[in-house]
Each structure stands twice: as C-alpha cells, then as structure tokens.
Amino acid sequence: MPAAAEETMEGACSLNIHNFTHTVGSLNVNFQVTQLENQVMIWIGETSMDDFSVGIPSNTATSLLGGGEVSSSLSQRLAVKLNKQVWVSYNLADDMMITPKVL
Fold first, then answer.
1. Nearest CA-CA partner of 102 in 17, 32, 29
2. What order of strands is seen across the sheet that includes strand 16-24?
C-alpha cells in the first residue's frame, strides 16, 4: 500500500470518550459519552449496565437489554436530533424527581 493511503486510513478513525459526574440530590450520577464517526454511545448510571437501547435517525429505537422506556426514548430523540445512530444505557430508577434533572 502506498504511504499516502496508509496515512489517510490512520487519520480516518476517531474515538472520543468523555467521563463526568453530576450530583442530583444525594445521588452521584456518572456519565460516559463515547463519540465515534457516525454514532454516539451514552451511559448514565451509578455502577451497572442493566438497560441498553439504540436509536436511528429514521425515528426508530429498540431495546437490546432490559426494557426501560427512558433509554429507548432518549436514544430515539437524540438519533433524530444528531442525525446519527445513538446507543443509550440509562441505569437509574425512573423517579419523577431524579429523571428530569438528569435528562
């Protein structure tokens, strides 16, 4: 392979990972956002990954693990807004006081 082609292939891959924590009431909520070229994965929770959904820009989402409405709804809305595939894992109890503050 020519050297120019190798440089182009290496430069085409991008992966960005962002980690942060936000305190909601007495709860420490962890976030991890992984950005790829045409998709994003968002994990929200304390420690585990019990729920996992994927949304695509055509306004469709499906649960792959668990059956939480929050992961599915959020992945669908973000996929349409960002025009890319969005994977969401929301792993907090669906509480009417906490969920709106996190989202």
1. 29
2. 16-24, 27-35, 39-45, 85-91, 52-56, 60-65
- HSE toward the beta carbon, residue 32, CA cutoff 13 A: 13
What residues contact residue 97 under an 8 Å CB cut-off, 6+ apart? 25
User: Are the C-beta atoms of residues 51 and 71 closer than 8 Å to each other?
Assistant: yes
User: In this structure, what token pair is assigned to residue 103?
Assistant: 């989202």
| 28-80: pLDDT as tens digits | 889 999 998 889 999 998 888 888 899 999 888 888 888 778 888 889 999 99
Longest dimension (CA), the chain: 58
pLDDT computed for residue 10 by the predictor: 53
Rounded-to-5 percentages of helix, strand, coil across the chain: 25, 40, 30
- Per-residue pLDDT for 4 more than 70? no
- And the tokens for 35? 């950005």
